[in-house]
Amino acid sequence: EIKIENDLENAFEALEEEEIDLIATGLTVTRVRREAVDFTEPHTTTRQMLVQRLPENWRKMRTWDDIEEKLIRNPLELENETIYIQKGSIFRNRLNNLANEIGGHIQVIESEDKEMEQLIEAVARGEINYTVADEHVAKVNEKYYSNIDVKTPVSFEQNLAWAVKKGSDSLITVLNNWLEDFNNSITSRYIYDKYFNNPRSVHRAKSEFHSVNGGKISR
After folding, report:
1. Beta bridge partners of 86
2. Among positive and negative, which fits the CA dihedral 34, 36, 39, 44?
3. How many angstroms separate the CA atoms of 82 and 93, rounded?
4. Closest among 24, 32, 33 to 5, alpha carbons compared
5. Coil, strand or helix: which one is 87?
6. DSSP string spanning 163-185?
7. What is the distance between the alpha carbons of residues 121 and 75, in angstroms, rounded to a whole number?
8. How would residue 203 be classed by pLDDT, with cut points 50, 70 and 90?
9. Mean pLDDT of all residues in the chain?
10. Dist. CA 133–CA 49, nearest whole Å
């Protein structure tokens, strides 16, 4: 039985209350989270990337260096900036640590009603200036929105895994055995390429029937 839950805090609470047995999403493995749940073996590694908008007139700029000058490439430049993130995500901890590391303040706002992909869209539309996303998610969305940049990391590489309630040893064993077999399979590589490396995604995104461009229904 599959339950859809976009609020990570609610997902962890449901796991603790035994309303669910598994959180099957890309959870960043951290020390604090390890104290609350047991993680499977990592299924992906990623970095946290800053999502920002290219300059308004970037298409008319003479060189890419001119564009680069307008973008944030050093996390030190995030001092006193405002960054929106998905509520309950691990990004808040990283940004708080980053603010401490640079000896400044970063305004972090947790969105109650927008997920990671919706916040990326908000950056593209000019509704907000910055958000943070996992690198593989950011790269996919970069294909959809030609006016965003996702090349500035704000973290080192991190492991992503699934989570179960503490003490679920037999379930962890079954999941890890399955993940090991699946991650080495042709099916796994096919699915990853389909969603993350598919060049046709760009053409689909430009279609007037795609949700990015209005989501029209064909005749």
Report:
1. 111
2. negative
3. 15
4. 24
5. coil
6. EEETT-HHHHHHHHHHHHHHHTS
7. 22
8. low
9. 89
10. 5
